[in-house]
Write a structure and sequence with these properties.
This protein is of the alpha+beta class and 524 residues long. Among the domains are: 34 residues; 44 residues, no CATH class; 122 residues, Beta Barrel (OB fold (Dihydrolipoamide Acetyltransferase, E2P)); 95 residues, PDZ domain (Pdz3 Domain, Roll). It is built from 10 helices and 30 strands. The strands form 7 sheets. It has a 6-stranded antiparallel β-barrel. Strands 25, 26, 27, 28, 29 and 30 form a 6-stranded antiparallel β-sheet that branches. Strands 7-24-23-22 form a 4-stranded antiparallel β-sheet, with no helix packed on it. The protein is rod-shaped and about 150 Å long. The chain starts with a helix and ends in a 5-residue tail after the last strand.
Length: 524
């Protein structure tokens, strides 16, 4: 009886085991229906000697199982073997390459670097090769693909100019006789005068004598006019013409000569008229003062309806500036107003101190917005030609060269060197918030300056950097305590900085590093 109860107790667990097995089998069957199909094994390879294979599972002399080779792996290997080998790379030091198979000091084989399938011959960058990246890898790495487009490139060069008068519109006022100023009609600097307007009244014994000579010549000519001898009549006419020409050469106005002819009396004082319209920019006489032709200037009258703006351009920008190029000027006090002008003169020499080129622009100034002595922001569009444009973020700047990766279709990416035309919107662009233009430093330049990082400032436009004393030729090493190695890195740091708050910037000038503080404007 005891044994019977014992068997019955054992029977219950057995039944449970059968039920569990059936459940597990059923679940397993469901899982198998959704599992991917099994990979096809082509053959088995000796793990220590890949050249030794077997069609069936086997073991080597050391008892190690042969490794299965699947169909998809064999296809990939076949495709890899059919690709062109560009060169071989040291597995421990990728910078060391060889055009033929080789081994390193440890006896390890150099790794072959293949060309991309379908890649054009002769493309790429020496020392670099195309890579194959699965779409999943590109997505995880955050790689974005942008189209390279052909556009009309017009790089903008900016500089700060100074408004100066048009030298061809400056007139100096002198007297041609000795005399005394009886009355001064233009009596302060800055007064506007029109052509033909009275400037001063002058008493001059020389002018008085010339008037009397003219009246005597007219009287003599009247007596000679009744003569029967033609030569006598002609002599009288020539005498009058000579006396009249003398008055004209002494700046006696024609209407005053007509008045002398009508009245028959000389004028004690002569009123001199302005020869041109403009503003009195210099005045050197007062009422009652004696004047003579040896004096420098009585007045300087300047026509400001057209003015010049003189700007300085760096040496590397000189070849981009040409006579007749269109330019736009804006004023610091009125940035919304844009005035159009053209390049009217380019200095044939560079300033030996600043290494800059002086360029002159001519601007119409009917409303007198441009006043001599003002600073003006000048924008000059240059290099107007078609080129391939790529995003600035696509360029990898190593300091020695700039590299971009070009998608060849599928999963292939090939390194390329962007052309100079494409870089015209990359390397020369101004950073909006800083208003500066920068480029990477070469290892040689960093060694000469004894620094380990930084970007070189090429140009500085009016803005926060210029206000802080940052000038071309300096190197930005840090901004907001973050190290700066490339222009792209600087752009990212600046983009996230708060506006209207002081930011410390570590700059290098020569052998010394100093901190300056700038306040960034709002916007990106």
């Amino acid at each position: 009886m005891q044994s019977s109860r014992s068997l019955h107790w054992m029977a219950v667990p057995a039944a449970l085991v059968v039920v569990l097995v059936l459940l597990i089998t059923g679940c397993g069957g469901g899982a198998q229906t959704s599992a991917p199909p099994a990979r096809k094994v082509l053959f088995y390879r000796n793990p220590m000697n890949p050249k030794v294979t077997s069609p069936v599972p086997a073991k080597d002399e050391m008892g190690m199982d042969y490794v299965p080779v699947y169909a998809d792996e064999a296809a990939l290997q076949s495709r890899t073997e059919s690709r062109k080998v560009l060169f071989y790379r040291n597995p421990m030091n990728p910078k060391v390459t060889s055009p033929v198979p080789a081994k390193d000091e440890m006896g390890m084989d150099y790794v072959p670097v293949y060309a991309a399938e379908g890649a054009p011959e002769g493309q790429g960058v020496p020392g670099l090769a195309a890579i194959e990246v699965a779409p999943e890898g590109l997505r995880l790495a955050g790689v974005q693909v942008e189209s390279a487009v052909r556009e009309r490139l017009a790089r903008t060069i900016r500089t700060v100019g100074t408004v100066v008068p048009d030298e061809t519109r400056i007139r100096h006022f002198h007297t041609r006789v000795t005399g005394w100023v009886e009355k001064l009609y233009v009596d302060f600097t800055g007064q506007y005068v029109r052509k033909g307007q009275p400037v001063l009244s002058l008493y001059s014994p020389q002018l008085l004598a010339s008037q009397e000579e003219y009246l005597q010549a007219r009287a003599t000519a009247a007596r000679f006019a009744v003569s029967d001898i033609p030569e006598v009549r002609k002599g009288g006419e020539e005498l009058v013409q000579a006396a009249r020409r003398r008055l004209q050469l002494l700046d006696v106005p024609d209407d005053l000569i007509a008045e002398i002819e009508r009245t028959g009396q000389p004028r004690r004082d002569i009123t001199l008229l302005a020869h041109a319209s403009g503003y009195v920019t210099a005045k050197g006489i007062y009422e009652g003062q004696q004047v003579d032709p040896s004096m420098m200037d009585l007045f300087t009258i300047t026509d400001l309806s057209t003015v010049w703006v003189e700007g300085q351009f760096y040496e590397y920008e000189a070849r981009a500036v040409h006579l007749g190029d269109e330019a736009v000027v804006t004023l610091p006090y009125d940035p919304g107003t844009r005035l159009a002008g053209r390049v009217s003169y380019i200095d044939p020499t560079l300033d030996p101190q600043s290494r800059t080129l002086r360029v002159r622009f001519a601007f119409a100034n009917p409303s007198l917005m441009l006043k001599p002595g003002m600073f003006a922001n000048v924008e000059l569009a240059v290099d107007g030609h078609e080129g391939v444009v790529i995003p600035a973020s696509a360029v990898i700047d190593t300091g020695l060269r700039k590299i971009v990766f070009v998608s060849l279709g599928g999963a292939y990416e090939e390194p390329e060197s962007p052309q100079a035309a494409a870089l015209s919107k990359i390397a020369r662009q101004f950073m909006t918030r800083l208003h500066i233009q920068v480029q990477s430093l070469t290892p040689r330049a960093m060694k000469e300056m004894d620094i380990h990082r930084g970007v070189l400032i090429l140009a500085v436009a009016p803005g926060p950097a210029a206000t802080a004393g940052i000038r071309p030729g300096m190197v930005i090493e840090q901004i907001a305590q973050e190290p700066v190695d490339t222009p792209a890195q600087l752009q990212k740091i600046v983009a996230k900085l708060p506006a209207d708050q002081p930011v410390p910037v570590l700059v290098r000038q020569g052998k010394a590093s100093i901190y300056v503080v700038i306040t960034l404007p709002k916007g990106k």
